[in-house]
Amino acid sequence: MYAVFDKNCSYPGTIKSMARQQNQIASLKMQAHKQLQANRLREAGELYHKACQLDPRDADAWHNVAYICLQLKNMRGAEVAARNAIAVNPKLPASYTVLGAALHSQHRYGEAIPVFEQGLQLKKKNPAVYNNLGNSYLEMGDPAEAIRCYRRAEKLKPEARYHSNLLMTLNYFEPENPTEVYEEHRRWGQQHGQPPKVKRKFGSIADVQRRLRIGYVSPDLREHPVACFLEPLLTSHDHDKFHITCYSAVASPDQTTARLRGLVDDWRNIFGEPDEQVIRQIRADGIDILVDLSGHTAGNRLKVFAQKPAPVQITYLGYPNTTGVPAIDYRLTDALTDPPGKSDRYHSEKLVRLPQGFLCYQPPANTPEVAPSPCVQNGYITFGSFNNLAKITPQVISTWAAILQELPDTRLLIKTRSFVDPGTRQQVQALLSEQGIDPARLELRGPNPSVAEHLRVYNEIDIALDTFPYNGTTTTCEALWMGVPVITRAGQTHAGRVGVSLLTQLQKEAWIAPDLQAYIAGAVTLAGRLSAKPPLARGPLRNAMAGSSLCNAAAFTKTIEEAYRKMWADWCSETAAKSQ
């Protein structure tokens, strides 16, 4: 930890001693620079810090300390050093960037935003800062402002990741014109996803019956929602007929990573690897079908897919929309989330609709037991939502407020990672207060340290309220597994119809509302049923879910494998036709 510098302090000394000191500082900084070039960050940081101790007025040295702390994930150290740099030189825009990033990483989004904005006042054309600012707005539940920032970043520098952030955030809104959203995805494909001009020949043998080599590519092969739905598939694959390889772009592997690794035939760590190297590896592995599991979410490798390293390419699971990448052939979905005749024209991929739903959920190990509805003990109904704050739009807030106004004795518990930041909690509380909801009826909580503790909080709510137009996925499955009924509203896009797919598999169509009025009425009606004596039992919901197609890994995997076989057979037929 570094002390905060007082810019008003003075340092007496002779001219000669000051000259020696300056030479020593210059030497330290030169050594530090060499260490930095050699990627020896800790050594470089120590040398820069020594220079700061000799001359606390050296803003550049403080900035370098801050930057190195940021790279080493020492966010508090980065914050203090960046503040020291700014205290010495308030016109150093890069130090505002580092300070904002350090604050954001400490979940202090409300503090990060004005810092980023100060940096932009000094250097207006800074795409990275606009991107970071957008990230902070998104965490504070303001996707509209985040979109403005991402558009600005992408305009200043048409970089793939800035554009992907923009595309991801567009999903938080019901599009007035779906064609515009589709064209924005296609623009990404045109700019960053064009296939090679010279078509590569594949080493794959066009044999319909042989053992196929399947590759899954993801940055989320760790404790992450994607893993909850991928693990049952990896567990149930028929390895006599399919050779499975995972290409892991995980920055920080964990126990889930290790567990998934034990389920597959081969595992490749591609985090930080250049696209061309990853492409060479996929081709060397002889992958027949390559599956993208991230779409435009963080850490994606869509630029790898754009170069068509495998004969058949699919996008699935991690992203609720088209990729816009011409080289990706198919997208796995179902008829409820993407109704035939409505969704196809908004996809660059061919939609393959799985018959029993596009998801298979694996509950975490050692989940808590289902508890009785808390209203029995509390004497009132508690509604709840554990979704990402960006999904809790102003329209969602006003709808939930309408439910609470209809039922004046009820409470609302919202739990999301963004509530680590006190400013974000205050902002959401203020929004609900504006809707006439007494803060005493609200409980706003941050994340729990473990999955088991997170799931146990579901025992404190009676009814889960789904978000819209971007539904919950993992959160809905978790609520249902914990015996908590979920009210959802059917939207117009895939993101807004996931709840329809999940609840239909459990034969709970009564909890699906076609519009906002029905959503409010459904919540009120269900609250009345739960308040009855005796209340509805919660245990049967978990049992029904366990016995449904939503948790039948073997049957689900078989439908996936049949889809892979059909895609492969089509490729073999096309290859044979071209060779004639």
Summarize the structure in words.
By secondary structure, the protein is an alpha/beta fold. The chain folds into 3 domains: 15-170 and 187-192, Tetratricopeptide repeat domain (Serine Threonine Protein Phosphatase 5, Tetratricopeptide repeat); 212-353, Rossmann fold; 375-551, Rossmann fold. It has 23 helices and 13 strands. It has a 7-stranded parallel beta sheet with strand order 3-2-1-4-5-6-7, covered by helices on one side. It has a 6-stranded parallel beta sheet with strand order 10-9-8-11-12-13, sandwiched between helices. Helix 16 links the parallel strand 8 and strand 9. Helix 8 (143-156) packs antiparallel against helix 9 (160-170). Mean pLDDT is 93; it is low at 4-12.
Strand-helix topology:
Elements: H1 15-37, H2 41-54, H3 59-71, H4 75-88, H5 93-105, H6 109-122, H7 127-139, H8 143-156, H9 160-170, H10 178-192, E1 212-218, H11 225-236, E2 242-248, H12 255-261, E3 266-269, H13 275-284, E4 289-292, H14 302-306, E5 312-315, E6 330-333, E7 350-353, H15 375-378, E8 382-385, H16 394-406, E9 411-415, H17 422-434, E10 442-445, H18 451-456, E11 463-465, H19 474-481, E12 486-489, H20 498-505, E13 512-513, H21 516-530, H22 539-546, H23 553-579
Parallel strand pairs: 1-2, 1-4, 2-3, 4-5, 5-6, 6-7, 8-9, 8-11, 9-10, 11-12, 12-13
Helix pairs in contact: 1-2, 2-3, 3-4, 3-5, 4-5, 5-6, 5-7, 6-7, 7-8, 8-9, 9-10, 11-23, 16-21
